[in-house]
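Onboarding guide, step 5: your first structure request.
Type a short instruction followed by the sequence, for example:

Predict the 3D structure of this protein.
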Amino acid sequence: MSDQIKFIVEKLNQEPFKKSYNLITFDSLESMQLLQLLSDVLGEIDPKHAVDIREEMPEQTAKRMLSLLGILKYKPPGSISDLSAFRQGLVTGSKPVIHPVLHWLLQRTNELKKRAYLARFLVKLEVPAEFLQDDTVAETNKQYEELMEAFKNLHKECEQLKTSGFSTAEIRRDISAMEEEKDQLIKRVERLKKRVETVQNHQRMLEIARQLRLEKEREESLAQQKQEQKNQLFHAEQRLQRVQLQLKEMHHAVVDSKPESLMKKLEEEIKFNSYLATEKIPRELESKKKSLYFLQKVFAEPAMSQSDLNVLEIKINEVNAQINQLIEKRMMKYEPIDSKFSMYRQQASIISRKKEAKAEELQAAKEEMSNTEKEMQQKTNQARELEGSEVLKGDEFKHYVNKLRSKNTFYKKKRLELAEITAEYGILQRTEELLKQRDEALQQQLQAIEQKKGIAGYSDTQDELERVSAVKSEMDEMKGRTLDNMSEMVKKLNAMVADKKSSLAPVIKELRQLRQKCQELTQECDEKKVQYDSCAAGLESNRSTLEQEVKGLLEECIQEESNYRYINCMKKNIEVQLQRAKEEMKIYVSPDPQERRKAIREQYTRMILEQENLGKKLREKQKVVRESHGPNMKQVKMWQDFEQLMECKRECFLKQQNQTAIGQVIQEGGKDRLVL
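The system replies with structure tokens like these:
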């Protein structure tokens, strides 16, 4: 503990505290003085805490110190109960609490200064979750976190640069080079001054040039501010457009929607997604794996020459010829009994292919719709950037409402058709399941018949041929349909572009007039703003000077008031002491012996005599105790031996009684046996 106090006193007597303490004066400090000293040390670490504790409440002082110690990661010794005692001791200024804190702070002042500096920028402000739902607050919080991360990176780079160090020779060379450049610039400025002095009104021209430079700098700053405001306006408009688009989509989704329709829609989406996840995507994945396997196999084989390729082509042609021959033989041996089976198989394969085709069409349509929406959004943004937003007025709005009504009726009609198609699809799906079950049973019978006849695999070859022909017909049909759709889409797009141009023409004309008016208002606003800025600058300068004067006078008044209170307290203490001294002298010189006994000197004299008499009595008693100590100890030893002897006798007596009782029991048992 003494080493700790020595270290604290030594550090406080050095820079920057410059205290003149020794061990006695430091140990005699009161609680308020210790708290003020701790506040001064904390203020040296963080300048915000350099305050006079007499000007704040004790709770505020303790809270402020605890918060800074928490930021500095000070861990008080002990458990949770000790933590509460630590807080109480910090409030009351207890020495066992303040001394370890001062020792810990003064040991690592430079490190704690850096930590306090970083805490001002890296202690994160906790924003409630309900406030983060606001886009502006969330965006501001995100920018705040990004700036915090940027500050961390910059601080790390700064520390690395500080620790890396530079060569003194390089720094000297740089300094000498800069001094040479400075001399050259001074000489050049002097030559230019001599040239300018020969020109008439050169002072006025220099002043005009300086004003021109200032105005150019101001113009650049205003242009930068204008660009920033334009960017902010553009971002705000984009955010507004996104929100409006989301609102429209939600309105469209809610209009004419019922729980039954929503459930049907969700069921359809679930069926479609389950079909994609269980049937379509696994098949595509399997085919991709097979193709990848073949490609890897080809890649692993050595390089083939042209002769090897020719041999493979010949083999492929031979296998194709054999396949064609087998197909022809199968067609020639076609029997009418198998027509029913083939019809069912063909229907099932057609339905499954149609299902796959519809799923692919639906997926392609969704992708096309998403791409079209993105493109439409881009075009809309470009049009708004170029010509401004489109606003419907008068007849155009009525036409738009009528168009929406017609589309609504058309949508309801199509929705009914879609419900019918969905019901029919369910029936067809059930029919497909039944047909699949029947097809499996018939397929097993057919395989058994083929094995009996010795033509196993005939039906599979026929199914493959039918599938190839059906696929070819569907592909031809799909190509024709795709070309028709593309031509119709091109016509519709051309018509839409023409309509948009005709509808945008009056709006663009009106927008040009508004832009011209906006430019005039902007110019007038800039002029008014310049006047306002000049007036505000003058008022601000006057206000700042007055505030400084008021602040200085308030500080002087507070200082004088504190001096007055201190002097007044000292005066009262001295008056009380003087009054006590006068009363004591009066009592001491009084001729009355009763009055003299009331004097403090007499009281202390009586107390000294009483204590001396008491000391004599205690010494006599001590002498008696010393003389009788030896015999008394012998007597105590004899009593202890006597006690042990009596305890031994008691145990022997108890043992004898137990043995007597056991003998009586044995004798009684023997008598009983004799009687029997």
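Each response can be followed by summary notes, for example: The chain is about 85% helix and 0% strand.
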